[in-house]
Amino acid sequence: QLQLVESGGGLVQPGGSLRLSCTVSGFTLDDYAIGWFRQAPGKEREGVSCVSSSGTWTNYKHSGRFTISRDNAKNTVYLQMWRLKPEDTAVYYCAATPYPKVCTSAPTTGRYDYWGQGTQVTVSS
């Protein structure tokens, strides 16, 4: 059974940082790409970052503030976020897909087969 579990969310002040984790089970990161998405209240889910099964990564936005990385030994993908802003407030999700070129194309939720339950990030003073 394939599972993804996000953690690391919370309340942070503007300008602060957080590191989100996505721990997977039932498959290996060598076989699946992992994408980070977020969804703010009343808005569509949007792609944030992606790491392919080969380890190459793409930031769809927020370049310079967000970095994706992975630790295959821990079956975990991280999203490090710096200089957070109130507009970064959202539920953050990780998702997995075996589609090999997903990270080189526009982030599309329909290309991902498996999703975590999400973790809330709130940026507020």
Short description:
The protein has 125 residues and is mainly beta.
Structure description:
- The protein is mainly β and 125 residues long.
- Helices cover 0% and strands 47% of the residues.
- It has no helices and eleven strands.
- Strands 2, 4, 5, 6, 9, 10 and 11 form a seven-stranded mixed β-sheet that branches. It has a four-stranded antiparallel β-sheet with strand order 1-3-8-7, with no helix packed on it.
- Overall mean pLDDT stands at 94
Distance between the termini: 40 Å
Based on Cα principal axes, name the global outline: globular
Radius of gyration: 13 Å
| Subunit organisation of the chains | single chain
Topology of helices and strands:
Layout lengths: L2 E5 L2 E3 L5 E8 L7 E7 L6 E6 L5 E3 L6 E6 L4 E6 L8 E8 L16 E2 L3 E5 L2
Parallel strand pairs: 2-11
Antiparallel strand pairs: 1-3, 3-8, 4-5, 4-9, 5-6, 7-8, 9-10, 9-11
Task: Give the key terms.
125 residues, 0% helix, mainly beta
